[in-house]
Design a protein that fits this description.
Layout (H helix, E strand, L loop, with lengths): L2 H9 L6 H12 L5 H14 L3 H12 L15 E5 L7 H11 L4 E5 L9 H5 L11 H11 L1 E5 L6 H12 L6 H14 L4 E8 L8 H17 L3 E8 L7 E2 L1 H12 L5 H17 L5 H13 L2 H12 L5 H4 L9 E6 L4 E6 L1 H10 L16 E4 L6 E2 L4 E7 L2 H12 L2 E4 L9 E5 L2
Parallel strand pairs: 1-4, 2-3, 4-5
Antiparallel strand pairs: 5-13, 6-9, 7-11, 8-10, 8-12, 9-11
């Protein structure tokens, strides 16, 4: 078999066999197929698309290119959650303890942030002592003991996807449903869950800018999961503004803790309730209504917060910080961004808010960038709120005074005011559940 024949077949819109796709993926992962040939293959795929069967084969080939986590030793139905990325998205920190408190094991591998989106692992590491790297044995033992563990992704989890994504990024072949869906689902399948809930973001802070494109991506991933023997559901959710009030690592941990204590922002609490409900449904815990009741009881009784403390303690974190949120280190510089005129807050450029937080030190531009855990932004105003000129719209947190003015300018370009009160947008646009 030759790579050039596979490229020609995809160029000519022929359907590739599983053997051809395996040859391409295995050869490229092993370094036997050069970048220029894989680039040609990706462009042919980008232009001509893939069938559902081809996409499934591509996903399974990438999932099988490295480590595959065996969770069979974990008791019960294992349900994973994946977000397609957003600003202020701390839902894993809230949903994980809720679901575990309802008796469904959460064995989760998460990533770090890059660019304007934050990473769950970075947030967890802002808690003093929290360890995000466990051995597979420790990981499984902890899930069986307390019902939850959240760790960093294995360096060899779906390595083919890592190599191919880097190539897609520089060859203008990112925006293709089959390639996006196989990239996400290859890692989810390799991570070993029985079922996966997808939180597919849409809006100006998300990769998928329209509800239609987000639904199309979700349906593609659901089909892949079904073909691979996994149970998959999806919620299409709003990323036209940051999720909650806080953007930045320790600021988001504080807000997640407050939410688990029953004091979180309304929209964030609602979304986490619905995500948790859907995960319980996928685990076979009953109807949507019954699962929502279980979630609300776990929150209202304090069991979800206690499970959060149990998770942090099990992985070496200082739980005193969760009982007394003032113990989290504060940024040296905390300054307001003031409204420049009267009006109503009509919305945010969410991507721009994320960039402003990065400028303050909360994110990384490259994988080697050092993160300032205490840096970030806390929003005071939300779409529909009346705003007076000179009133604080947000607070900026940083330990670098030099970064402040640039971040303020970026935030100023990301805050939109209008004379009329905007029409409220839904938090969840659509639910696609099996």
């Amino acid at each position: 078999m030759r790579m050039i024949d596979i490229i020609e077949a995809k160029r000519d819109r022929k359907v590739l066999t599983n053997e051809q796709i395996q040859f391409a993926i295995n050869g490229y992962t092993a370094g036997e197929i050069p970048d220029y040939q894989m680039s040609a293959f990706l462009m042919a795929t980008y232009l001509n698309g893939m069938t559902s069967e081809e996409t499934k084969c591509l996903t399974l080939a990438m999932a099988g290119s490295g480590d595959q986590i065996d969770l069979s030793a974990v008791q019960g139905v294992k349900v994973d959650k994946h977000s397609t990325g957003g600003v202020g998205d701390k839902t894993t920190l809230i949903v994980g303890p809720i679901v575990a408190a309802c008796g469904v094991p959460v064995a989760k591998m998460s990533g770090r942030g890059l660019g304007h989106t934050g990473g769950t692992i970075d947030k967890l590491e802002s808690i003093e002592g929290f360890q995000t790297m466990l051995s597979p044995r420790q990981f499984i033992e902890q899930v069986n003991r307390i019902g939850i563990s959240v760790v960093g992704q294995s360096g060899n989890l779906a390595p083919a996807d890592k190599k191919i994504y880097a190539l897609r990024d520089v060859t203008a072949t990112v925006d293709n449903l089959s390639l996006i869906a196989s990239s996400i689902m290859s890692k989810k399948i390799a991570a070993g869950a029985d079922a996966v809930l997808l939180d597919v973001k849409t809006g100006n802070g998300a990769f998928m800018k329209t509800t239609e494109s987000a639904c199309a991506l979700a349906k593609e991933m659901i089909e892949i999961g079904k073909n691979a023997g996994r149970k998959v559901g999806a919620l299409i959710t709003n990323m036209n503004m940051p999720l909650g009030n806080a953007v930045g690592n320790s600021l988001e941990v504080i807000e997640a803790t407050q939410t688990l204590q029953g004091n979180g922002p309304q929209a964030l609490t609602y979304l986490c309730t619905e995500l948790s409900t859907a995960m319980l449904q996928l685990a076979g815990k009953g109807s949507e209504e019954h699962c929502r009741e279980l979630v609300q009881e776990a929150l209202g009784s304090g069991r979800a917060f206690e499970k959060w403390k149990e998770l942090v303690a099990a992985q070496g974190g200082n739980t005193d910080w969760l009982d007394d949120l003032s113990l989290f280190p504060k940024a040296a510089v905390i300054e307001p961004y003031y409204a420049q005129q009267d009006g109503y807050l009509s919305g945010y450029d969410t991507h721009g808010v994320g960039l402003a937080a990065c400028l303050l030190g909360a994110g990384r531009e490259t994988k080697d960038t050092q993160i300032d855990f205490s840096a970030g932004i806390v929003l005071e105003k939300h779409p529909g709120d009346a705003v007076r000129r000179g009133e604080a719209v947000a607070w900026l947190y940083t330990n670098s005074a030099e970064r402040l003015e640039q971040a303020k300018r970026q935030l100023g370009q990301s805050v939109f005011l209008s004379e009329a009160c905007p029409v409220p947008e839904p938090m969840i646009y659509e639910k696609l559940m099996p």
